[in-house]
Amino acid sequence: HAKAAGKGRYAIFGEHMEALLQERRLLETDLRSALNVGDQFLVLYQPVFAIDGVTIVGVEALVRWRHPEKGMIAPDRFIPIAEETGEITRLGEIVLEQACLAALLWDGLVLSVNASAIELSGPEYASMVQQTLKRTCFPAERLEIELTETALMKSDDALMTNVNALRAMGVRIALDDFGIGYSSLARLQKLPVDRLKIDKLFVDDLGADSAAEEFLATIIKLARSKGLSTTAEGMERAEQLDVLRRLGCDCLQGYLLGKPMPADAIGQLISDN
Ligand code: C2E
Ligand code: MG
Ligand code: MG
Ligand code: MG
């Protein structure tokens, strides 16, 4: 009896797997054609605030895929596919161009754009950025490229060459999702980055957990001693703000202060700020 039930479970599991694979193949095909045209990709912008929690100092560009039948698809569902198929390079160009053109209107604010390790390992990445900046007339000094900590830890020569070339152009580099990648502090000292973006995971426990606070205090102190700026990601509650301010964090990002929104909405928010 138990054996039969077990078999049934595997059959259901198998069907489920098959459905997942099917879904994935469809997305892959759709993604390829969407990237040929490019107009299905919508860039949203989340405001980044100074530690006063009031002044907007920048925006982070976050892509969405407006699928004609499936509706809005989150990046976590299609970025991994784009990375595997190599199409992330094209997607990265589309997002960067769209974001630079939009942010041109937001005087003086920093534009942060995410890039995956695959993009930054392509030999052409830095020159693609340079050409896009030139074409859109967007100043390099206002652009920041976000790279995850794990990506930079696995860094190959091509990635390092790109990072150095970008910094030489005046583009800043931020280490995204910082804290979850197990980088040693010794290694961190040698990385050519300008900002640490502290992962939401460590921000979540603030206010309730003193170990979380101690950890953040150490990170922020270290960042300061190296001349790096810090941004806390995923701030959702007011009590987190109090702790981050006390610890000397530089910038704040999170649903409490502003969610990702379309260009016209963030434009309005910025002009009212
Ligand atoms: P990320 O760069 O770490 O971006 C932060 C994510 O956290 C965003 O999710 C944002 O909407 C979300 N978030 C911000 N504040 C809060 C908060 O207070 N609470 C909660 N629960 N979430 C918050 P999103 O937009 O779904 O993006 C997910 C990830 O996809 C990004 O993580 C980034 O790694 C990647 N991504 C997004 N756009 C691009 C892109 O254009 N290129 C590449 N390569 N990756 C991208
Ligand atoms: Mg990011
Ligand atoms: Mg992050
Ligand atoms: Mg993330």
TrEMBL record:
Annotated EAL domain residues: 24-273
Superkingdom as given in the UniProt entry: Bacteria
UniProt signal peptide: none
Protein name: EAL domain-containing protein
Organism expressing this protein natively: Aliirhizobium smilacinae
